[in-house]
Amino acid sequence: xxxxxxxxxxxxxxxxxxxxxxxxxxxxxxxxxxxxxxxxxxxxxxxxxxxxxxxxxxxxxxxxxxxxxxxxxxxxxxxxxxxxxxxxxxxxxxxxxxxxxxxxxxxxxxxxxxxxxxxxxxxxxxxxxxxxxxxxxxxxxxxxxxxxxxxxxxxxxxxxxxxxxxxxxxxxxxxxxxxxxxxxxxxxxxxxxxxxxxxxxxxxxxxxxxxxxxxxxxxxxxxxxxxxxxxxxxxxxxxxxxxxxxxxxxxxxxxxxxxxxxxxxxxxxxxxxxxxxxxxxxxxxxxxxxxxxxxxxxxxxxxxxxxxxxxxxxxxxxxxxxxxxxxxxxxxxxxxxxxxxxxxxxxxxxxxxxxxxxxxxxxxxxxxxxxxxxxxxxxxxxxxxxxxxxxxxxxxxxxxxxxx
Length: 404
Prior knowledge:
alpha/beta
């Protein structure tokens, strides 16, 4: 997910001051209303809506049942400044093209997340002066499109810049706090050991700031990988890094771990076919991982016969496939089949109220098993947490124990 982006045109060279808490709940110019389940945002494949011969998302939805798309990439302006643009060239503030793509997806019952960063280009964490101004820039994107999810793709060269990473992680924390329910993923480079030195420094920065996203995802490709076995080995090793960094047990670490693959031929000539995706999918689901995605839908189609297998392309996979073969693995991860209608939800029984525990305190540190009360419910901590509001995120650190 790295080198290829840098060599495919200006925008391709290329996953958060804060604003009020209405960004996710109020309908706006984008027409956004309610969010999908977190599992769908965790399964959203990457799509470049302005470059690399963008496919029609409506056609992909009809063919596969896919509901979510990870739109890439938001960057700082090529000419400098702390305002969000698509690919460094198209200001988010005046955008209509990406808005039209999002409107098409939502009209069919789906939704879109936005990814910031990627390989190359200038990131807002590099251009903005601090975490608050970085967050304010990203808040413009959330508000403009009514987003329920955002991805911080922190990789070369930005993740080698300590100050920039501090701004990005600080911005992510601010956005998470100011947009209740926002699904936040952090994506970084993968290595055979899980992730490299800079990836580990990013995790330590998150720990120091007390920030826990929905997941930390690695990209196990472009690093001497050879099929699914090497990728699942890297995911196992990354799980160990998450455990040692945050003090989580294995299950908790997997619940905060994600996979971001590359379909077909990678930038360095590795090959990942449909069987590899199935193997990694089986690993991800059996270990209850939080995210399974890939780069990219623009590449999820077969090249012409003359190109197949001979080069890495931004518009096709260089392996034998039917259109959208790889998107179907995202649909499997989300746990659905092509939609046939919206089922009526089963009402959840109201629990019998019990006495309330000690009230939750934003400044207190809680560890697994600690109990608090908040909003007339008791909550139990699933892992170490501080200043994470009970119930703010579906996959957050607090387990709802019922009304009190």
